[in-house]
Amino acid sequence: MTTAELPVISCCTPLAGSSLSEERAAELEGVIKALADRRRLRIVNLLLQAEGQPVCVCEVQPLLGLSQGTVSHHLRLLVEAGIVVRETRGTYSYYRLVPGALDAVREVFSSAASVA
Q1: 83 part of a folded domain
Q2: Residue 6 has what pLDDT?
Q3: Would you write out the chain's pLDDT as a tens digit for each of its 116 residues?
Q4: What is d(CA 81, CA 101) in angstroms, rounded to the nearest whole number?
């Protein structure tokens, strides 16, 4: 068999292209960076368990075993990323997840999981 008769074998799977634009990836980068911390992941999980009800920072602190300042810092980063909103009532701050804030992240990974 000569080289001209050998079948062409591709070493790589052909890609159809990304369904995620550069702009959308940049938007999601901040959200994913905010979630890329175990304490913030736990805070988001606690807020998910609250099912949309506002949660006082004083309730989060003992559950995580962190100081009030540390919890407030992590909550501030989640607010800046657009994942959480803060509502002030007197001297207390209450937090809840922004409805749909995690949907875009879920969609990115859901489409990848359906391929795998």
Answers
A1: yes
A2: 65
A3: 565 666 666 677 766 667 778 888 888 899 999 999 999 999 999 999 999 999 999 999 999 999 999 999 999 999 999 999 999 999 999 999 999 999 988 888 886 555 55
A4: 9
Q: How many residues does the chain have?
A: 116
Q: What is the CATH number of the domain that holds 73?
A: 1.10.10.10
In a domain? residue 6: no
- The answer to whether the CB of 74 falls within 8 A of the CB of 43 is yes
Domain containing residue 36: 23-115
Please report where in the chains the tokens 């922004």 appear, as a residue.
98
41 in Cβ contact with 75 (< 8 Å): no
In a domain, residue 10? The reply is no
Cα-Cα-Cα-Cα torsion 101, 102, 105, 110, nearest 10 degrees, comes to -130
Q: How far apart (Å, rounded) are the C-alpha atoms in residues 73 and 79?
A: 10
Please tell me whether residue 84 adopts helix, strand or coil conformation: strand
Residue 16 Cα to chain centre, angstroms: 25
Long-range contacts of 108-111 (CB under 8 A, 24+ apart): 108/20, 108/28, 111/19
